[in-house]
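(Structure overview)
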Amino acid sequence: MLSTLTISNYALIDSLEVDFNKGFTVITGETGAGKSILLGGLSLVLGKRADLSSLRVKDQKCIIEGTFKIDTYGLQSFFEENDLDYEDSTVIRREILPSGKSRAFVNDTPVTLGVLSTLGENLIDIHSQHQTMQLTENDFQLKLVDALANNQKRLTDYRKDLKIYRKAQKELQNLIEVQSTAIKEQDYNTFMLEELEKAPLKEGIIELLEEEYEQLNNVELIMEQLSKGDQLFNDEQIGVLPLVTEMRQSLSKLVDFGANYKDLYERVQSVLIELDDVNSELQRLQDGVEANPDQLEQVNGKLQLLYDLLKKHNASDVLELIEIKNALADKVFETASLDEKITLKTKEIQEMESVLGKQALVIREKRKSVIPQLKKKLESDLNLLGMPSASFQIGLTDTSTFLATGMDELSFLFTANRGGNYGELKKVASGGELSRIMLVIKALLAKYEKLPTIMFDEIDTGVSGEISNRMADIMKDMSAELQVFSITHLPQVASKGNHHFKVFKTEGAERTMTNLKELTTEERVVELAHMLGGKDLSDSALAHAKQLLN
């Protein structure tokens, strides 16, 4: 329930702080006194968009704050999901800055306007002429039927499964689209893959092939130079090995004459050993070199293939070609397995449809079982509100589509006159009739689901006398289950309130201000008398006012 409302620098309100209680609260005041301003300020707390025209003093910020007792609202999960501190007595603050920017806070934590609006829907239901039009919408009418049928838990489970089902449908559609594209590309991808698989793709292969190609392509030069090297090593007259061998023999005769000579001998011996090893390697290479035109052609073919593939795939090296080959292999495999995936997903969807169908059937049967009760209750209550011939035709039509509300389309037809033609509410019901129907429905909903605080904004417009008394009784009865506000011009309604507030204007030297105050019993008598007889208080008006209060 709304326990406190504080408004500063908003429209005609300079500063206002008022406390509210549970039960039935009525708000009265002359036309233009500022009741709409009060509602506007409250709407800002509940998430309505604001603009600079809201500021009374343009260079000061506007602050509107509401304190709500929410311990019975079951909103803990909402606070957890939005990372907000939960308090049984929650404070919502809205600030409108002179720059035009707006800020919102829940228990001093900044929130977006979307979060605030969602929370506001769970705190106060402001019933206006605009909201009365909701009555003509199919979803609202189904909500009424489902409240009586106690379908809330069934619908929650159904919608959870429906969300999964729609996700699966989207996945199946994506698979089909992928398959359609993949089939067109399959032959091309397979050709490209086979071409890459024929190539000797491994890291460093191009460098190795280029080296082998250079050796095979220059075999005569290599043989010539190796032969020349062999001659330089082994020629009896000028060969390196015979000369170094002769040098070693000469130095061997000096080793006993000192360490220097011995060291020199050992160094020449080491050189001779290394030269002998080089000579052996030279001869080995010479024996292995031979002209091989066929091998040269093969190596050249592999190189040209790799060069062509690098250019074709715009790759910088063989590693990129390997990545491309693996990606193509995945595509070819995936295309081949798409049929199986589509079959499995189709079967999964069919199983989901079976479950959803059973859920929707249970929801439908529950709805059908309460429709006669709903029809009887609406017609009975409207009879008390001066609509004795009001009649409804409420029916369900099966659909083949899974809707958010099940698999039903609701037909909610109405006539206000005996023997009249039934039609949709928005076409055949007047504004006053819609207001009375909505009041009856809200009273009915209050018994079956936990509604937030309700504020009726002149729902009694267009009615008077005994009908207004009965409307007031309905609102009074509703207030036993929840906090109810009624902004009214009718003394019959105002007299039934547990609490009575008056909106009024005061004019200062420079500006007019809107105020709100709770009336004492004596002040209520005077206010009701004014509502009954105008500005001039007569004894009869005062007596009638006292009678209404009693």
User: Anything to note?
Assistant: The chain has a mean pLDDT of 87.
